Amino acid sequence: MNLKCTLLLCGMCYPLPVYANPTPDCDIEKNTKITAQAPASLLPCFASPSPAIRDDYALTTFSHILRTGQVSEAALVSMILDIQEQLRNPRIKQYHKAFLTLGLAEIARVDRITPFLNESQRKALVETAVFLFKTTTDFTGFDDKYGYIHQIPHTADLVLQLALNERISQHQLIALAQSLKTVINPSQVVFYHTNEPDRLARASIYLFLRKELSEAFITQWLEDVSLPPNGSWEAAYQSKKGLAAMHNVKGFLGRLLLTSYDKQNERIALVHAHALAQLRRVR
Q1: How far is Cα 275 from Cα 250, in angstroms, rounded to an integer?
Q2: The pLDDT of residue 36
């Protein structure tokens, strides 16, 4: 069975749930003939309730085009504006929002490698990443039928691309680091369980590699991340919120230790030493 038929059947198997966006513009037949100049026609497919269409097809194809094709700057800027507008729509469905975030991360990657954004447009990307961390309330992670609803890791991937971009300023790096810090242990009672700490740790490492962030800032950041929610880690055992905090902080620090293990870079060695010291206190 060819790709088009497979995807069409997948779509038929996923009648729109009450929380799904309709996707009248997700034309698979048209998109299988897509050219490298028209990746925007894939964006409506990010709203599909079918993970086979949304993830395996739309995102994979979109990423391939941006990483290998020659997309015009005008088209890239237009897509950024479209995605940012959709991400701020309060009625957007969560799995749609999460995959648009990955699409935005792919465009941010293009700007990192071949700069095309101006200072104001890059600033808006940073503000979008901060907004996404600040406003995330759905921590599903994975749904058996609808696939990944994975906003926190996807936003972390966007932050990673921005952290790697040398045109992101010190002020913007600090804003990204501070917003990332708030989601390592969310204010909601959430037990991360679908690889969130790993993606957060990777984004953190690339932020810490930037010399614009001082060693004092990094040390304080790690101390802040490791603070107990109710005065002491002993008290954390007495509530779900405390237990969730312990679970999430340990998970993050553990992944940070693994990511920074045996690295020759002095800044990463500093991160490793302080992460180990903080982890020893979370018990």
Answers
A1: 10
A2: 62
